[in-house]
Structures are given as structure tokens and as C-alpha cells.
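Quiz preparation item.
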């Protein structure tokens, strides 16, 4: 359940980043949202993995698939949106 909530938080952060990019305006501003989101989300996902390993007592091998899901699903959505808006010239 916690993993699902973190993934949903990632999609929410992605939406906020794209909204921020849209607010900035100008050509390519929407892709700015994805460029901001990806490193930010990588840091959040890595911190979550760190907490799982150091405080929850899971091993790195146990946490790695969870990290990949937490980072990967919103990141894939960001890349898809990035490519869509960069090709559309928006």
C-alpha cells in the first residue's frame, strides 16, 4: 500500500512539474516540467530506498525492484509526455 501511495505521489509531482512548466510559458516550457521532474523524482525514490534499507531492515536486493517501480512508472510517463510535447512543438 505504501509503495502505491508513493507512486501516486510521483504522478502528482509530475503533474505539478508540468503545470509549473506551463505557467512559465514559452516554447518548450512543458518539456521543462519533465526535465525538472526526472532528477527530482530520482532523488525522492533513492531516499525512499535508503529508508527501506537502513530503517525498515530490507536488503538492497529486496528494495531494488520496489525502487524501480517507484521511480520507473512516473518516469516513463514523464518521458512519454516529454516526447509528445517536444515533437508537437508545444
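Solution:
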Amino acid at each position: 500500500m505504501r509503495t502505491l501511495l508513493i507512486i501516486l505521489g510521483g504522478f502528482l509531482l509530475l503533474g505539478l512539474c508540468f503545470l509549473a512548466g506551463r505557467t512559465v510559458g514559452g516554447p518548450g516550457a512543458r518539456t521543462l516540467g519533465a526535465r525538472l521532474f526526472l532528477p527530482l523524482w530520482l532523488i525522492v525514490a533513492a531516499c525512499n530506498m535508503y529508508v527501506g534499507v537502513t530503517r525498515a531492515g530490507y536488503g538492497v536486493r529486496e528494495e531494488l525492484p520496489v525502487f524501480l517501480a517507484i521511480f520507473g512508472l512516473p518516469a516513463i510517463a514523464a518521458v512519454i509526455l516529454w516526447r509528445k510535447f517536444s515533437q508537437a512543438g508545444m
